[in-house]
């Protein structure tokens, strides 16, 4: 079956009510028929729900879909994207282990690697996504994992998954990919040898800005460790959120097609604009890794960055002059969202760390929504015009 069909037709068994759409199983626990069943389930002699921190029909349906859409063996749903990222690291590494990771990772992922895991004796070397020659040099005898994000947030650096997969294989490393920006619809890292794939389902998988969620997908033996870790430590996905996210997957393909079409139109519109210094989008030929993006992604994704002329103050005026577009830290919503990474998601990094991953003071991240592209363009145009006048008056 094709992607769209799997996303729609993978479904829990119907109950005696013959419902068409799977219900929400808002229950913390499940009953056992008798003492013997309780014993057998706890002994894991066969599979069945016991307690929603372990599993729930709604999270199982969501995991089953992710598994099929990413083309992997198993998946475990978590309460948020960060819970998924942490669960893809903590159970598989121990004191003395080392990770080689892209420096262009989500801000909180960098915090885990540089501030939290080192306290437990797990260290990381961050390597620049656009300097592949530095990656192999960073691998040490105790390196256990290669962790990256492509396209990256917010710099949209694209890393060659085939190359990275080969590097991981050659050195026997667990290859871990945060696939949040692309979603399994645009790119399937398992095709390039990824052992683990993490998602913030909060973003395009929900796509409507309603719930938090995450998922770790990948090799069966590794997900077994992730599941054991999460069952004990508790970052499980709530049944209602799992129900919302499983429904959301039914429309992922059509939504992503439109996000990508809108984003490309907007990127093309602003690429030669006199008030915009630079537009970055993986499917614009000016993108430094355009060829790699074309090779490994079905389309360019829903995120663009724009660097407005005039630096920080002008950028502030531009953001405040928008009328329709939302100012929010989230992304992957039906509503177009603008974010100023230097002041928000990446404010914990130093100026040098930001510069190194291309976050300039005038850079805004645009999560292109599903409104009509002409309306998005019109709002950006009027904000550029108004901020131009405002900065001239100053
Ligand atoms: C948002 C995001 C996360 C974290 O996800 P939450 O659901 O907010 O915890 C991780 N990685 C990337 C690339 C993200 O954009």
TrEMBL record:
Name this polypeptide is given: O-succinylhomoserine sulfhydrylase
Signal peptide per UniProt: none
GO MF annotation list: carbon-sulfur lyase activity; pyridoxal phosphate binding; transferase activity, transferring alkyl or aryl (other than methyl) groups
GO cellular component: cytoplasm
Amino-acid biosynthesis recorded as keyword: yes
Modification type N6-(pyridoxal phosphate)lysine: residues: 203
Annotated organism of origin: Catalinimonas alkaloidigena
Catalytic activity: O-succinyl-L-homoserine + hydrogen sulfide = L-homocysteine + succinate
Assembly: Homotetramer.
InterPro entries named in the record: Cys/Met-Metab_PyrdxlP-dep_enz (IPR000277), Cys_met_metab_PP (IPR054542), O-succ-hSer_sulfhydrylase (IPR006234), PyrdxlP-dep_Trfase (IPR015424), PyrdxlP-dep_Trfase_major (IPR015421), PyrdxlP-dep_Trfase_small (IPR015422)
PANTHER family registered for this protein in UniProt: CYSTATHIONINE GAMMA-LYASE, TRANS-SULFURATION ENZYME FAMILY MEMBER
Pfam family, one: Cys_Met_Meta_PP
Pathway: Amino-acid biosynthesis; L-methionine biosynthesis via de novo pathway; L-homocysteine from O-succinyl-L-homoserine: step 1/1
